[in-house]
Amino acid sequence: MEFVKAARRSDLRNRRATLIKVDGEEIALWLIDGKMYAIGNVCPHQHFSLLHQGTLDGILVTCPMHGWTFSLADGHSINGSGRAKIYQVKVEGEDVLVEKPESRWS
């Protein structure tokens, strides 16, 4: 698994998403009480790129477009079908690294 630098820890705010782009993919990076989560920004319901603007409840994020809710831990939908893409996150010093998305052509 390959990781790329996505942000600096000091740039993140607790319980707020930071929208990042990694190899052309939009990813919502969340810092929640010291733990980091990265979820594909596209809601699988109707493919709106708004999960970074979603409402947070614990580690559940609700898409503001139609109200589908996803777990930041595994991407599973709580009240709909489908699953949002989840990315691994690690911190090295001040750098926040996110799993590099798989190539669309592989």
Kindly provide the name of the CATH class. Mainly Beta
Principal-axes shape call: globular
In terms of quaternary structure, the protein is single chain
CATH superfamily placement: Rieske [2Fe-2S] iron-sulphur domain
Please tally the helical runs, counting DSSP H or I stretches of 4 or more residues. 0
Q: What radius of gyration results from the CA coordinates?
A: 13 Å
Proportion of helical residues = under 10%
Structural class: mainly beta
Percentage of residues in strands: 35-45%
In whole angstroms, the N-to-C terminal distance is 14 Å
Averaged pLDDT: 92
User: Largest sheet at a glance?
Assistant: 4 strands, antiparallel
**What is the name of the CATH architecture?**
3-layer Sandwich
CATH topology: Rieske Iron-sulfur Protein
Count every beta strand, where a strand is a DSSP E run of 2 or more residues: 10
Order of helices and strands: EEEEEEEEEE
Strand order of the biggest β-sheet: 2-3-4-8
Could you say how many structural domains there are in total? Answer: 1
- Low-confidence blocks of residues: none
In terms of topology, how is this protein built?
Elements: E1 3-8, E2 17-22, E3 25-32, E4 35-40, E5 55-57, E6 60-62, E7 69-71, E8 86-87, E9 89-92, E10 95-99
Antiparallel strand pairs: 1-10, 2-3, 3-4, 4-8, 5-6, 6-7, 9-10
